[in-house]
Amino acid sequence: xxxxxxxxxxxxxxxxxxxxxxxxxxxxxxxxxxxxxxxxxxxxxxxxxxxxxxxxxxxxxxxxxxxxxxxxxxxxxxxxxxxxxxxxxxxxxxxxxxxxxxxxxxxxxxxxxxxxxxxxxxxxxxxxxxxxxxxxxxxxxxxxxxxxxxxxxxxxxxxxxxxxxxxxxxxxxxxxxxxxxxxxxxxxxxxxxxxxxxxxxxxxxxxxxxxxxxxxxxxxxxxxxxxxxxxxxxxxxxxxxxxxxxxxxxxxxxxxxxxxxxxxxxxxxxxxxxxxxxxxxxxxxxxxxxxxxxxxxxxxxxxx
Length: 304
Ligand code: NAD
Fold this sequence. Notes:
By secondary structure, the protein is α/β, with parallel strands linked by helices. It has 13 helices and nine strands.
């Protein structure tokens, strides 16, 4: 760090305002700075990120930026940060939100940004903290073609894949639909393992059959919840996350909020939300990987 930029780096370098330098935002901002972009960051907590200059306010971080990136906890905070940065931004700049938030907040912020002559994008990620550090995130993107083209070089630095899913809000829609499938399939995989245990079926045999049969899924094949079976996963590390159960609960609640708002019937999504809520809020799920549903089922009988 601190090295002089080459002429080429200066040529391609963008000015980026990065707001929300937490577990995900900090490594994403560091990767952009390491790639030669000028990154000015802001967080309400006192954090320092290699290569990133700190601003005193979100508006200051946004003022000269070609692209403002937000990586924040939820939709209410996004709305409040957006109302502060949008008036400060240069006309024609892009506002790229990478947080996971409700579809309504994403669309409301996009409408406000568009009215101010900005290029809004919602681009939630999958890949977790490991993917943020390694620059291997997947971005699911909603917004105009023009906005997507502006942000594409940044997606290529922070991630390994981006999918343009259509208009504003569609990135968030893709994310919560994917994670609703993930929550449901993880529960189904865990309860099937617990049933197999009671039936006297060896877990390795269960894995060998299901992972090559019609019950296969990412939860079984790539992230097997049974320790010592299948590829390395958080189950092999005492269910240290990985993807924490409370983050799964957040995404499932967003899926149910969206289902309510759009009048969609999602009975399994609803059940998965209720189960993860109980696991996180009334049992020992908080701080454990979301695949720790397996020891939960293992310890229970049919009626509790
Ligand atoms: P985090 O809590 O570590 O980071 C959020 C940061 O935002 C914090 O540093 C906080 O101080 C800051 N912040 C809060 N209010 C602010 C404000 N008004 N102005 C400026 N900064 C403010 O959370 P995270 O794990 O980095 O997650 C960020 C987003 O990414 C969330 O929406 C989360 O759902 C999503 N996400 C997280 C993961 C993961 O594995 N952690 C994976 C995919 C998506």
